[in-house]
Amino acid sequence: MSDSSSHSAGSNLKMGLPIPNSKLGMWLFLGTEIMFFTAFIGSYIVLRMGSQGWPSDPHVTHISVIAGGINTFVLIVSSYCVVVAHDAMLKKHFKTALKYLWITTALGFLFMGIKSYEYYGKFTHGILPGKIAENDWQAAQQALAGFDDAVEDTGYSDMKLELAGLEKEVAGAEGGAKETMQARIDELKKSIAAIDPFANDVKQFKTYVKKEEWDFAELTQEVSTLKESYPEKASHIHEPHVILYGNIFASTYFLMTGFHAIHVIVGLILFGMVLKQGNKLDETWTDWVENSGLYWHFVDLVWIFLFPLLYIVDFA
Amino acid sequence: MAYRDTDHDDHSHGHVSYLVIFFALVIFTGISVIADVVHIPSTALKTVIVMSVAVAKATCVLLFFMHIKFEGNWKYILLAPTTILAIGLPIALMPDVATSYYISDVPQKYDYDEFMAVHGDHGEGHGEGEHSEAGHHGAEHGHDEGDHHEGDSDKHDGDIDHPEPNEDTSGADATESSEE
């Protein structure tokens, strides 16, 4: 090896691997990526196997095997389009390559769209790490916090503070100022009176929740009565429900799918750089297409494991 | 191999072969979805099926789409360490969390025992603790309002301060039922 420098210029000997440096770099990077995702997937498997239970009912977790299956299909089609695009690049059919890369990019966006739809379903049902009630007490606290926020949203306590301040000042004021103050006081009193029943009912609910003993069915009833009585203020509050092991489920789910989605976005940027070339696309981009293709296949590969592990498998 | 027949030069592996791989991947995905939709009674069997399918799909993508099949021997040097570590990591974590002889003492465990006592199969996992008593009330004296309330308030006590007597019996129950 050390005498490679003494070889003449015409030597056939070549240092390094018979692949472009960029490709070697990409494969080394993918090596680290394997470890990166293994850490998450491995911890998920171990945590799930170590848990006595796990939320697996699709009505509870809002996980749809059909949405996951369609997304798997979308990524497979996009992977196919990338290999065809790379093939076309090698044959210098740049128009064909562009066409397939456009399809790949569109499919990447479709994947993200379906993923967003799935995320949206979870957000609206409060399936978020640290936001899930795992016992009755937490469910009650959650409902209470929701109602408290609903009262706050009306500006109730701010108005009360302002009113108290004005009532102190108004005694010392004179003339026009006093009149304006009085008008504002009346206005505030009127607004506060309108919210009072709701605030009082929430207060009552709070006393109920703070009791030593309560019944979950009764609590649910209380919550729905409150919601029905004040639909414009409290309709968005969830009925109290308990999902055992829901937080660890949500944490692992969002960690894995979230990092996967970030990878999809990066892949879309890589393809976007090629698409930006338009008709100027030439063979200097062949390695780029191959490397971003390798990256894209890897993203597909990760999803191939995430799909059964998150959407299908039921560890006994 | 049929795939090699269409292999005319170093790089081009032919669209037909890519199409074959593509259709194989689609069919594999279909098998996974079907395995979930038709209710396979054994969860272990379902897991084996869908994970084998995933491995088969991953192999297809690696070998053909990522051209690993046609690369030089550098692929072994580059991928062996990371693959070994990737397989080793979950195995190394396993004894810590997943294979202990006891059930991890997390608050959810108590609620889970209760949940199973009330909603689960009444034939399994009943010890002599408070929980199985609640299940008993539910099953046999469910019509009696008073009994119901008693059972329920027991539950809430359990939620908040987890009385000690449950620990031993419910832990043993859980091990029993998870073995089944």
Short structural summary:
The complex is a heterodimer of chains A (316) and B (180). Chain A is mostly helical and 316 residues long.
Question: Any overview of this molecule?
Answer:
The complex is a heterodimer of chains A (316) and B (180). With 316 residues, chain A is mainly alpha-helical. Chain A contains eleven helices and no strands. Chain A has helices at 21-50, 58-61, 65-90, 94-124, 136-153, 156-172, 175-210, 216-229, 231-234, 246-277, 286-312. In chain A, helix 3 (65-90) packs antiparallel against helix 11. Mean pLDDT of chain A is 90; it is low at 1-8. Chain B is mainly alpha-helical and 180 residues long. In chain B, helix 5 (107-119) runs parallel beside helix 6. Chain B contains eight helices and no strands. Chain B has helices spanning 2-5, 15-37, 43-65, 74-97, 107-119, 130-140, 145-161, 165-179. Classes of the chains: A mainly alpha (316), B mainly alpha (180).
